[in-house]
# Entry
Amino acid sequence: MVKLPNIQRGKIYIMLAILSWLALLFVDLVRLFGEINQMEGDISQEITWILEIIFFIILYIYFNDSINKKEHSNFLNLIWRAASTGLIATAVSFLIIYFYYLLAGSRLSEDPLLRNFFYHVNFALTTVFLISTSLLWKHLILYQKSKAVVQQWQAYEVILLISMFFVLINQESFNYGFMFGLIFLIIYGVILSVNLKWIPYLTFREKWKSILFLVIIIACTTYLLVQMVSYNQKNIHFINLSENLFLLGIFAFVLIYAVFSFLVTLFNLPTSSVFEQKLTEAISFQRLSQSIQPGENEEQVLDILMDSSMSAAYVDAAWLEMHGQDAEGLPARVLHQKFISNGERQELLDLLKNTEPFSGYLKGQTDAKIEYINGKIPHETYQSVLLIPIRANKKVLGDLFLLKEVKDGFNKEMINIISTFVGQTSISIDNYRLLNEAIKNERYREELEIAQRVQRSLLPSELHHNACFEIDGFSAAADEVGGDYYETYRFDPDNFALIIGDVSGKGTSAAFNMSQMKGVFHSLVQLNLRPKDFLTKANNALSRCLEKNNFITTTYYTVNTREKEIHFARAGHCPTLFYSKEAGKSHFLDIKGMGLGIVRNASFDRYLEEGKLSYHPGDVMVLYTDGIVEAKNEKGQEFGYDNLRCLLDRFHALSAREIRMEIITAVYSFVGKDILPDDDYSLLAIKFKA
Amino acid sequence: MLSINKAADRDHLIIELNGEVDASNSVELDEVIQQALSEDSNKILVDGRKLEYISSAGLGVFMSYLEDFQEKNVSFVIFGLNEKVLNVFHILGLDQLIRIRQTQEEAEQALYEV
# Structure
């Protein structure tokens, strides 16, 4: 089916309405002509009625369409539409009367055909007015509709439709059937007319206007009714169109609803301001409760608070004083000040400081948990004062001072609503600060992620080695960044340096010191020093860099694969675990040592020892940091040195990579899944093959 | 968890450590030693019999005062450390710088022998 566009549909309805009216006019005039000339009419009165019904239905559909399109127009516009239509219908009626007045005495004025033509014009305009107005009423009735009301209205429409055809069934006018039908329609109209929910939403001004419009509607409706009925009585020759139950039914409905609306609006006038007040409060509350938008700040929320509180209690003057924020270094200041001068404010503040019950609070003596102080002051202009502290995050941000010229100007309801406003403001400010903090934290987290990436790149991805030994490393930080460090260096194809280190503390500060350690390693390793000298020089360098209570533990090794010799020195680091294939077991290489940065003078080398060992193929060396041996399980037990030693005894035959994996797996399963590691774990496994 | 008790005995001060010293509470230990130094105590005894664990941050605290002790001529002795904690001191090399004794008597003796 082709769907016609809306605009065309409206035009088609108008065309159809005009056509049906013209047909009605033609049929009636022909009938009347026949009646006057006493000709045997072929046209029965049913045709008149049917054309009338068609006219009604087309108009009804047309207005239903056109009003639905203007769904969003306000109530006042709707009522004005009805009133203006009524005025036009009435005006045309008056014009016709005036026309007849001019024609008075002439033959034309007695002509029944002309009179009937004008009667049809009046009828058409009255019908237009009634149908359009009743559909506007429908719109008002269905404002804030419930299902029940919608059903009521639908039933009413069905009843109206039936009432149109009533005339076909009941040929006699004004019998019991007709009266019963009419009374039923009136009662139903009354029932529908109690739906007046739109009225409270009018402002005071709008109410006055709507009263005016309603009076116009009532007057027009009454006039048109009287005029239509008077036609019945005055004219002998005429076609009665008003005997349709539908027409009288909506006459009644339009009139009843207009009267109801008029009365209710009138009686609503005195309480109108209260309703408006409550509406403003609700809106203020909503504005306050919306968390502060990006780009706005706390001051804007406090401004809304001021305005809302002032309008809620009809306040004459007010100011908002913010306390000094020690943490932010802000001095006390007056943020908002309304209808009051600086001098006057100072004067009032001095007065308040000397007046109970304000003095106690203002001098900081009374309990800080006070919610509000309401009292009177001996001032020539202002008689009552309400003081409300504004809190956020349990801290008093400032005080709101509200002043009224009347005595006891603040009643319970006002104080309640203002307290609620203040509470909501506090929540908004709290949320705003939390949000800002969250954003800041997010930024920190991002920075930390960058640090993490940078630091990961400080650990070598590949470890130097040759065919004589395998090496495999692992490192995991407890926090985003860690303080563990290991590195290798190749002097020549047979000579290597190894280092493992652990910076005291953990997290960011440890990470910084670790990168210093890396720098020291790369500078000193090129000098190809003996391990003890290396560490002495490293201590020298780091003593100038590290904070007083920071130190670094490390072990430095040089490996010569031709001689199969290892030289090492230990600077306070966990003793190296060494598996000797010859002995068939592993042991810790415990030599004297001292952490870097502990002794920051030349005597450092006295505390160091240098170890030397020869290795054989199949021997394994494990370097690790204290995070491994001090890893705790949920019972608080430490992983310990013995566990580590036993693991190496068990897995020494595996490759370096497998040994490393076995040990790390063992540590993690010892700690358990539920415990977060609280130290950095690092491990290097070196397996000698030749 | 760490609790620190400070008591004067004759002309020395006993600082008793109870529990674990780690990064989160090493500041408390630092404050106590700082205070002892500012009170001009020149004989300090640390009772470590109930010290269960000490992290590198805790060791850092002792370490950072070594120079002050030397400058102000303060004798500083730790005693009663359990094997595990003693090992931590030993590995780091602090046992070469701080006098560590088994019992309180030995510690007191060491304290007064200077």
